[in-house]
Amino acid sequence: MVFLGDMPRVPHAVLKPLCEAVANGAPAAAPVYEGQRGNPVVLARTLFPDVLQLRGDVGARRILDALGDRLALVEAPDDGILFDVDHRRDVERA
Q: Phi/psi of residue 42, each to 5°?
């Protein structure tokens, strides 16, 4: 599981389905809310070599995009998978 430290509102309801998707054979799983993919993501061990090749602050978006239909998508109950805190004013919305 890859959690981002600046995302305080991730709904717990997505965690088990994300893990189950990967346990059932998906190479990775990501939550979606209203068509937008968010975080956290779960990566199968087979993707670890690809993750180790990442350099800088690029994230795994390229790896997930390359999976196409093999990326399992899990519907999230709210926008907590998209909400991140980048500025002090964002904390007020949390």
A: -120, 130
Chain-centroid distance of CA 68 in Å reads 15
Q: Is 56 left (phi over 0), alpha (psi -120 to 50) or beta?
A: left
Find tokens 């109950």 and name the residue. Answer: 77
pLDDT in tens, 11-41: 999 999 999 999 999 999 999 999 999 999 9
C-alpha–C-alpha distance, residues 58 and 61, integer Å: 8
Is residue 74 a contact partner of residue 14, using CB atoms and an 8 Å limit?
yes
**Interior angle at CA 70, CA 37 and CA 38, nearest 5:** 10
- How many of the other CB atoms lie within 10 Å of CB of 55? 6
- 1 neighbors 17 (Cβ within 8 angstroms): no
